[in-house]
Amino acid sequence: MRRGAAVLFALLPVLAPLAAVAQAPEPDGYRMEEYRAPVPATLAGATVVGPEEAHALWQAGETAFIDVLPQAPRPPNLPEDTIWRDKPRESIPGATWLPNVGYGAIAEVTETYFRDGLAAATDSDLAHPVLFFCLEDCWMSWNAAKRALGFGYETVYWLPEGTDGWTLWDYPTERVTPRPD
């Protein structure tokens, strides 16, 4: 046995518990805090996909891709004459960016924005496939996909690796702007 393989086998008992810690259990409700943390491997009612499956869905062109990365608001204490520039978002080409809809609790106006954005992306067809993503280890996409299931969407995909996993495979991205209110 080669030395490298022997070292790997010796480390397996140490590394195995770390791998188990890296995934969170699926909660009954929405994640309400610590949105950048290990996510579950599952989402009841949805299909979990990796970057390769997501890319195949993207190429087929029959699934609405929904980016739910939050967008920081302009700080309220900035002087009025201060120039504020939103951080640019590189996303999956053709995706609809619906920022701030993935929090555990959302205001009625945000829920309406989310429903309207989904309706526009799916032509108000609850059977139209939708795929949710954000960044890797981001609960925002998990919450948004779960919420879409609650709205009655029938074919929901979740990409837990988000744009981090997408770009790791060297798939294309484009700069997107949030869908207007």
Structural description of this entry:
The structure is a single chain. 35% of the residues lie in helices and 12% in strands. The protein contains five helices and seven strands. 31% of the residues are buried. Mean pLDDT is 88; it is low at 4-12 and 14-21. It has one domain: Oxidized Rhodanese, domain 1 (3-Layer(aba) Sandwich), CATH 3.40.250. The longest helix has 19 residues, at 3-21. The protein is globular. The strands form two sheets. A five-stranded parallel β-sheet has the order 1-6-5-2-4, with helices on both faces. It is an alpha/beta fold and 181 residues long.
Q: Mean pLDDT across all residues, rounded? A: 88
Strand content: 5-15%
Q: Report on the biggest sheet.
A: 5 strands, parallel
Q: What is the CATH architecture term?
A: 3-Layer(aba) Sandwich
Whole-angstrom Rg: 18 Å
Structural class: alpha/beta
CATH level-4 homologous superfamily: Rhodanese-like domain
How many distinct folded domains?
1
Q: Can you tell me the CATH topology?
A: Oxidized Rhodanese, domain 1
Shape: globular
Q: If strands are numbered along the chain, what order do they take across the biggest sheet?
A: 1-6-5-2-4
Share of residues in helices:
25-40%
Q: What letter string, H or E per element, gives the SSE order? A: HEHEEEHEHEHE
Helix tally equals 5
**CATH class, please?**
Alpha Beta
Number of E-type strands: 7
- What distance separates the N and C termini? 62 Å
Spans where pLDDT lies below 50 across 5 or more residues: 4-12, 14-21
